[in-house]
Write a structure and sequence with these properties.
377 residues, alpha/beta, TIM Barrel, 7-stranded parallel sheet, 45% helix, globular
């Protein structure tokens, strides 16, 4: 791989199933409410999530906070999966103590037919943040040459997951509104998903142009669908996004591969199909046996995951033992024939805001230490 200069490119190499000295680690929602420094920055932003996400300086600051505290192997852009429908004019807001909510959800044919791919200039704050974060990640190597600390991951929600929020207007316990549209008016649902696929593709490509060195598609609600409907309403549109993404970028005059990660929460039953859509990495939640997943899919993709986030509430020695169990389940990444399977350690979903930071430190140490031990056996 012709990578851009990086002090630590372990994450990128694992994504591309190349040799690594240890298993790289990053955490979904690693910049967030479990960190006291994040809370302090949020106060500066008027206690507003979108005040943080739309301010380039604050978004840069909170993206780097977990890297300054823990030796993580990748940074992920601080933003939200719902920025795209917000740019479509649906009116995103975050109430105090509440999740995201749209002022103008898609509830009838007229609203759906009026939907358009957004002007990317409305998302300029995201691309500016990507560029700013890349600059802030710059350091120097042992010989004083400029290089990046770790790679930066950009991301978006999947077309289906965005569509769920756009129809429901908020999070949901039963997905009644979006599933009613899906079954009663599949034509309207497919129009929403087609527009979303075009928008997500353009959005992620713009993040790559701005400096993202890998991108991730979060299909957070794909697992609520029945078999058959998952393929038609979620996977097919994620496949379109993956097919339309730029897979190389020029960085400091060097051509670099841009890995693509796809994560479907609850997607374990469809792992074989997800692994076939052209992504480089498939993320797994904690319900999946990692060793079995490796045997099924690692001839095509690397795997990311998949410890239960609630393990981080256990004592540090338990956290370390559970991390070792996940690594042992995947096994030694190098195969007997000398080829490598890729594994990126992560949580099976986002980190809880109540997680003790010292338990995260124990997790990072355990993953790095035990994965080195596995490679020496």
């Amino acid at each position: 791989m012709n990578a851009a200069p990086l002090a630590n490119d372990t994450f990128l190499r694992a994504c591309l199933r190349q040799p690594t000295d240890y298993t790289p680690l990053w955490l979904m929602r690693q910049a967030g409410r479990y960190l006291p420094e994040y809370k302090a920055t949020r106060v500066k932003a008027g206690n507003s999530f979108m005040g943080l996400a739309t301010n380039v300086e604050y978004a840069t600051e909170v993206t780097l906070q977990p890297l300054d505290r823990f030796p993580l192997d990748a940074a992920i852009l601080f933003s939200d999966i719902l920025t795209v429908p917000d740019a479509m004019g649906l009116g995103l807001s975050f109430g105090a103590g509440e999740g995201p909510r749209f002022a103008h959800p898609l509830r009838d044919e007229a609203a759906v037919m009026a939907l358009q791919v957004p002007d990317l200039d409305k998302l300029r704050y995201v691309f500016d943040a990507v560029t700013s974060i890349r600059k802030a990640l710059m350091t120097t190597d042992a010989e004083g040459r400029p290089c990046g600390r770790v790679p930066l991951i950009g991301f978006s929600g999947s077309p289906w997951t965005l569509g769920c929020y756009m129809v429901e207007g908020a999070g949901s316990d039963d997905y009644r509104l979006v599933k009613t549209m899906m079954y009663a008016r599949p034509d309207l649902m497919h129009r929403i998903l087609d527009i979303n696929a075009q928008a997500v593709t353009a959005y992620l490509n713009a993040q790559i142009d701005a400096g993202a060195q890998a991108v991730m598609v979060f299909d957070s609600w794909g697992g609520v669908l029945a078999d058959g409907n998952f393929q038609r309403f979620s996977l097919d549109y994620t496949r379109r996004v993956v097919a339309g993404l730029k897979r190389e970028r020029m960085d400091n005059g060097v051509k670099s591969r841009v890995p693509v990660i796809v994560f479907t929460k609850g997607g374990g039953p469809w792992l074989d199909e997800i692994a076939g859509i052209g992504a480089d990495v498939v993320g797994l939640d904690w319900t999946v046996n990692l060793g079995a997943a490796r045997r099924l899919a690692c001839d095509r993709v690397a795997l990311q995951g998949n410890i239960d986030p609630n393990v981080l509430f256990a004592p540090p020695e338990v956290v370390a033992a559970e991390a070792a169990a996940v690594l042992d389940s995947f096994g030694r990444p190098q195969r007997p024939d000398g080829t490598w399977d890729g594994h990126i350690f992560n949580l099976g979903h986002g980190i809880s805001q109540h997680t003790p930071p010292e338990h995260v430190a124990a997790l990072v140490e355990a993953v790095h230490t035990h994965s080195r031990t596995l490679r020496s056996r």
